[in-house]
Amino acid sequence: MKSSFRNIISLSLALLVVFSTLSFTVEKHFCGKTLVGKAVFSSAKKCSSEMHICAAEDRGHMNTKKDSCCSNKKENIDGQDELKTSSFSFDFLQFNYIIPLIFISENFLYELPFQEIPHKYYKPPLLFADVQVFYQVFLI
User: Measuring CA to CA, which residue among 48, 98, 41, 50 is closest to residue 74?
Assistant: First the structure.
């Protein structure tokens, strides 16, 4: 349970780092004001015909122009570029505290000396009858 929880957390943190640094482009293709195609990491789907009938925004009639109303819009979504790596250095003063700690803790980590169990091989005598039933003494 503990190791599986640790694996899930480490995998989720690794994915968080990957997706926070990932950069990608979203490309949109508009014909007039309607969205025709949308794509991520590739070019957007273009209009089916080259001749489009677009309504002129300044006039109230229809106008036939070649690719005049189509437009492409690209959005770049940038990931995090600056990652801070943590670094540490050991000072000589830290070693002055670590070395005595090792010698002191070494004394406490020894095994206890072998102690003989006094009644290890003692076998109790065989019972000829159940004593509680024989004397009729019962705990209620």
Answer: 41
Distance in Å from the first CA to the final CA of the chain: 44
**Coil/strand/helix, residue 38:** strand
| Cα 64 from Cα 32, distance rounded (Å) | 12
DSSP state for residue 86 in the 8-state scheme: P
* Beta carbons within 8 Å of 115's beta carbon, 6+ residues apart: none
The whole-chain average pLDDT of the chain stands at: 76
What DSSP state is assigned to residue 89?
Answer: -
pLDDT at 33 over 70: yes
Q: Give domain limits for the chain.
A: 23-77
- Band of residue 95 on the pLDDT scale cut at 50, 70, 90: low
